[in-house]
Specification:
The chain has 191 residues and is mainly alpha-helical. The protein is built from seven helices and no strands.
């Protein structure tokens, strides 16, 4: 799914600033004051953008798995860790909404980012195949490391060479037998 493109806010669009200055200068004579207002607005918005990008950066760092070199209980997966990780999903929705809102411009997006964030999270949290894999991560072949550490029987193991060779020989034999069976000419009884 292609993400929705957010248009460039007028406060940092030089063409919009120029057009607004032209309109105002038809009514006023002081272009320097008009451009100072535009610069002040752009700087205020740039500072807001900077602070929000800093929040997004912080979220990206805290959602990573914990550093395994540090002493503490470790989280081995990124957050959200699965469909039932309510705090992880809420942090994702909040961060997505903040980034969307600030990208919309100085006045925000009137809640659009929260709505879209909740919708996207809901789509990912309620997918049937995701729920099945969350209950049985070994089916995907990449077990949840925390669950695998507690239950080593979930960890998929590579077959040894003898088992792999046996499976390959049996598969080849079945394939040849089926090919022979379906290629032979039909028998028509003569009466």
């Amino acid at each position: 799914m292609e993400p929705t493109r957010i248009p460039l806010p007028a406060v940092i669009d030089p063409d919009q600033i120029y057009l607004q200055a032209q309109e105002k200068s038809a009514r006023q004579q002081d272009k320097a004051e008009i451009y100072k207002e535009a610069l002040d607005s752009a700087c205020d918005y740039a500072q807001k953008l900077w602070h929000e990008v800093d929040v997004v950066r912080g979220y990206l760092l805290t959602s990573l798995p914990t550093d395994p070199r540090l002493p503490a209980p470790h989280r081995l997966t990124a957050s959200p860790t699965g469909p039932d990780d309510e705090p992880g999903w809420q942090a994702w929705i909040d961060t997505y909404a903040r980034a969307t809102s600030v990208l919309a411009g100085p006045k925000g997006d009137a809640g659009y980012g929260y709505g879209e964030g909740r919708q996207q999270a809901q789509l990912r949290r309620t997918a049937t195949n995701l729920r099945a894999l969350a209950r049985r991560p070994h089916l995907e072949g990449h077990p949840n490391p925390e669950e695998a550490a507690q239950n080593p029987g979930l960890v998929p193991r590579w077959p040894d060479a003898r088992t792999a060779l046996s499976v390959a020989v049996v598969t080849l034999a079945v394939e040849r037998a089926l090919a022979w069976f379906f290629r032979r000419p039909p028998t028509i009884p003569i009466s």
